[in-house]
Amino acid sequence: MVADQKVQAPLVILPPTIAWFGGAEGQLLLLDTTRLPHEHVVLSLHDMHGVADAIRRLAVRGAPAIGVAAAYGLYLGVRQQRPMPGALLDTAREVAAMFLATRPTAINLAWALDRCLARLRRESSLAALFDEAQRIHQEDEVCCHRIGECGADLIRDGMHILTHCNTGRLATSGDGTALAVMFAAARRGRTFSVLAGETRPLLQGSRLTALELLAAGIPVQVLPDSAAAGLIARGQVDLAIVGADRIAKNGDCANKVGTYGIALACAAHQIPFVVAAPWSTFDPDLEHGSQIPIEERAESEVLNVAGLPMAPDGVHARNPAFDVTPCHLITAIVTDRGLLRPPFGLAIKALR
Questions:
Q1: 195 has which bridge partners?
Q2: C-alpha distances in Å from residue 52, one per residue of 34, 73, 75, 93, 95
Q3: Closest Cα partner for 322 from 170, 202, 176?
């Protein structure tokens, strides 16, 4: 089902996070981000169960990347079962339900699956499903570029920028979301430095964000998550910019746990706090952030680091993967359709 390929390459040269190899009978290639930064392992996936497992265990993560992977996974699942033409849509719905259960918070997953199912309702063929997955993949690359260009002017020379979790090429099909803004600013010749929160418990900031910024030649320092508020208070942060996994109609944003605390500190010290996300991350069905489902992951992720126990036997842990930042703490939301300013409810409505 899965063949792991170790890529022998310099540490700062990364394979694409998501790629499709071959035509309609091909396979999905996913860079296993759980093995970074020390190993480059590409998963070759031929069936839906391999893709679902990769999403569930965070081998592929980041809201846009999850959406793209789920679209290809849906195609692989239907291709596996080879249903009769009249049963194609019903089979796709069953496969989609399985993918929906893998990660509940990131709306891009459901958005991509809904879009694929809608295409099947219009055009009931396996070829149409494959085409839609490819379109979602290609559009995500364009989206990332637009987000970067839209937000690049928020970054000025000499800035010290704080970010949380990983929001770049390892989380999308293109340049990313929050990191795309930094990459675009760097292309324009801006000089700045980044503080990357380590992002406990799985250390996406230190393992992934620092790796991406190193590869791009952007100065980066890894920061213990608990140090962010203190540095903001001491005037050592000029701008905080993060991604989002779901955005409600009023502008409330769910992102990696720890984001809310950063937003509170920024508000207390008049530091701009910016969210960057594609339009597919906006949920038109949720009025406000309290309605966003928050994924609770295994307590073992908190109690162990690199497979080593960090707490006494018998101790339990809470592991919410996300928190919600209220819209009144957000300075701006950078999207592929434009830069949004408060009041976000009206701005989102106008853009829709």
A1: 162, 221
A2: 15, 7, 12, 15, 10
A3: 202
Those residues whose C-beta lies under 8 Å from the C-beta of residue 232, and which sit 6 or more positions away, are 162, 240, 262, 265, 266, 268, 269, 271
CB-based contacts of 7, cutoff 8 Å, min separation 6: 15, 40, 41, 42
Task: Say which DSSP state 209 is in.
Answer: I
**Taking the domains of the chain in order of start, what are their residue ranges?**
2-144, 148-351
Q: What are the helix (H) ranges across 269-309?
A: 300-303
Report the alpha-carbon distance of residue 174 to residue 141 in Å, rounded: 4
Does the CA dihedral 165-168-171-176 come out positive or negative?
Answer: positive
Return the axis-axis angle of helices 107-122 and 88-100, rounded to nearest 10°.
180
Q: How far apart are CA 117 and CA 93, in angstroms?
A: 7
Q: Look up residue 254 and give its amino acid.
A: A
pTM listed for this prediction: 0.94
Q: How confident is the model at residue 7 (pLDDT cuts 50, 70, 90)?
A: very low
- Asked whether the beta carbons of 180 and 275 are under 8 A apart, the reply is no
CATH fold label, 2-144: Four Helix Bundle (Hemerythrin (Met), subunit A) (1.20.120)
Q: Which amino acid is at 59?
A: A
The runs of H, that is alpha helices, within 9-83 are 48-56, 63-81
- Joined tokens for residue 73: 């996974």
Q: Which of 68, 80, 163, 155 is nearest to 116 (CA)?
A: 68
Which CATH number is 148-351 given? 3.40.50.10470
Please state, as a whole number, how many other Cβ atoms lie within 10 Å of the Cβ of residue 328.
13
Which DSSP symbol is given to 320? B
Say if residue 16 is preceded by a cis peptide, omega within 30 of 0.
no
Active site residues: 245
Name the 3-class secondary structure at 334.
Answer: strand
Query: Coil, helix or strand for 262?
Result: helix
Residue 120: C-alpha distances to residues 28, 78, 301 (Å): 21, 11, 38
Tokens of 221: 């320092």
Q: For the segment 301-345, what is each residue's pLDDT rounded down to a tens digit?
A: 999 988 899 999 999 999 999 999 999 999 999 999 999 999 999
Angle in degrees, 0-180, between the axes of helices 63-81 and 48-56, rounded to the nearest 10: 160
- Tokens standing for 184? 């675009």
